[in-house]
Amino acid sequence: MGKGKKGGKRLTKKQLADMLEGFFQTQPGKTFSYKQIFKALKLTTHPLKMLAIDIMEEMAWDDFLSKVGDNAYALNTKGQVQEGIFIRKANGKNTFQPDDGGTPVFVSERNSMSALNGDRVKVQFMARRQKHIKEAMVIEILSRAKDTFVGRLRVERDIAFLVTQENLFVHDIIIPKKKLKGGKTDDMAVVKITQWPDVDHKNLVGEVVDVLGKAGDNDVEMNSILAQYGLPYVYPKRVEEAAEKITGEITPEDLAEREDFRDTWTCTIDPHDAKDFDDALSFKKLSDGLYEVGVHIADVSHYVKEGDIIDREAQKRATSVYLVDRTIPMLPERLCNFVCSLRPNEEKLCYSVIFNLDDEANVKSYRIVHTVIKSNRRFAYEEAQKLLEDNGVVDGTGTPAPPAPPSGYVGEYANEIISLDRLAKKLRAKRFKNGSVKFDSEELHFDVDDKGKPIRCYFKRSKDANKLVEEFMLLANKTVAESVGKVKKGAKAKTLPYRIHDNPDPQKLENLRLFSAKFGYKLKSSSTKGATARALNTLMDEVTGKKEEKLIQTVALRAMMKAKYSVHNIGHFGLAFDYYTHFTSPIRRYPDTMVHRLLTRYQAGGRSANKDKYEELCEHCSDMEQIAQNAERDSIKYKMVEFMGDHVGETYDAHISGIQSYGIYCEIDSNHCEGMVPMRDLDDDYYDFDEKNYCLVGRRHHHIYQLGDPIRIKVAHANLERKQLDFTLVDADGNVKKTSAAQQSHPKAVKSGRGSRRRRK
């Protein structure tokens, strides 16, 4: 008789359930595998083990236990009441996200207490109905995510309403006529909620705090985007007045405590329309064969003192916001465009990192010092790029200019720019060799007329001139972080805001490995950061120029974590730096100003700053950065729809840029505008969404729409109010298509319907 068939006592289901209940209750907080549970309860027979597994499944369903992985359980200690964030969906499938980051729980509309998206709530879990999903009921709204909303006014005879595009309101926002502040129908307005829904009142009641102007006007729409995200669209007058009092005069005392670089060749390289020049590069050949390269950064902290009115406003904003046709600066215009800006032929105060580099761009020594400079020339990126190309540089190859001809290099300050480019390329090569991830980013740009209307849409790729500046800024940021973070063994590093970037999500990385394998690529899995980065770079090199390049690059980017600020350093995965911070843009980023102040403090022998205070500031800056990016994306969407509004009915070659259960996102090849083909238009079949393989698969005909597939589309609708472009699929002749565009077979295409008996066994 087999070992599993003898021994052990007979137990009823109830007896075994009681044993399991007691076992877990006496050991809260511990997780046990099947093997550990069987051993502890002396379950030696196969039937008893199977019965125990069934009971634990039921206990997990009833929320008494929490399932951990596939074969382990722990006591559910969370209780029936939890706090977290309410997420409202336009389709009514609202969810509650617990604070511990657990699985979202469904909240029906009738149990939502009219909570709005992002509200912090307390919920009670409901008794689970058999074969139904877990549900929760909102029992208290702890705090509101926001109390001001942006939308279009609709004024009727006795009452007015705010029509928003958030689609996340249960009821209309009602505005009494006397609270309209002069607003009329179709005006864009900012409305503050004065009465939230309660037992007696189901509606939101608000008052107009600002009328932005007529919907459709460019300035009004841009300000609406800012207001929607709670970003300021006007600069406070009292802050501007404080800035006007700053003269920018450099005193003899200022000069006495700084290194003088006014006679050293220095230049700025920036976008052609930039006004705030916050970094400059100096170059000088030294007698010992080394090169002195100075990275000079505008000394904002000299003029903006911690806690003053300008600093408080800058801290609140945390970053400049770059919309398509305007910049919303972090600092008042007088400071960012004049006093602090490193304008040519003007003496300016800087905080600088001065490097001594050899021919191979190895750092032989460095110093971080306060300086005074005088820029010799302001280059636009395009000018610097032309200078490089005129002297034999082929963009994107990573090869520096050939040796100078007898007549010398052509162009103003060509020797200096070419020398900096050569050193930057060596720095770049070393960075990639050390495991920096190779993602060449492309940014969507618009040319707009004087009324803000887009007249051209294109992708802007980073060229050698951009990379030149980038490499030296990266080196400076890394060096500054190391100067504080790297300490002798046993010593404690002083507080500093770091720019951190965590390792990729392991599950998403595994998805990328499996996905790229379908195209014949091998992504080596590795436990170390450096090896993972090198494997990713190898993959990116292998797909370059192939039709699946964009597809695999998109999936790879989705595996990456978001970079953020923190005083707790974990390194920067993407750059392969153990220490990294932001030091080089204090005009447009508040963390850089914080770093400048702390460096000055530590150089003067000051004590380490309060960690908790700076971590709080880091979190705020990370949040504001994300909000600014969202606003920028919305402005791009608006301009995209506005631009394509003149092209409704026209057909274009495109490719699939995104797949969702509700439709296909398509990017036009010629101008990079993105729209969506709704699922309802795919009426030739019923499509299933394969999330792992980023595609839609037809049930009957097994046609596939996959990320990266080439397609032809017609512009169907351009809805400016919703910032939404709708496309329809067409054939080569421009006729609406009734069959799927992609005819390739799906790696896991499963035939549905009745099928054969054999397959169903």
Task: List the topology elements.
Blueprint: H1 13-25, E1 31-33, H2 34-40, H3 46-61, E2 65-67, E3 72-75, E4 81-87, E5 94-98, E6 105-107, E7 120-125, E8 136-143, E9 148-155, E10 160-163, E11 173-175, E12 187-195, E13 204-214, H4 218-228, H5 237-244, H6 252-256, E14 259-261, E15 266-270, E16 279-285, E17 291-298, H7 300-303, H8 309-317, E18 321-323, E19 326-328, H9 333-339, E20 347-357, E21 363-374, E22 377-380, H10 381-390, H11 414-433, E23 442-448, E24 454-461, H12 464-485, E25 498-500, H13 506-517, H14 529-543, H15 549-559, E26 564-566, H16 590-603, H17 611-644, E27 651-660, E28 663-668, E29 674-678, E30 687-690, E31 695-698, E32 704-706, E33 710-719, E34 724-729, H18 757-760
Order the strands across the largest sheet as they lie in space: 14-21-20-17-16-15-22
Question: Helix/strand-derived class?
Answer: alpha+beta
Low-pLDDT windows of residues: 1-8, 739-761
The oligomeric status of these chains comes to single chain
* Coarse shape: globular
Proportion of strand residues: 25-35%
Q: What separation lies between the terminal Cα atoms?
A: 32 Å
Rg calc: 31 Å
Percent helix among the residues? 25-40%
**If you average the pLDDT, what whole number results?**
88
Tell me the number of helical segments per DSSP (H or I, 4 or more residues long): 18
The major sheet is characterized as: 7 strands, mixed
Number of strands: 34
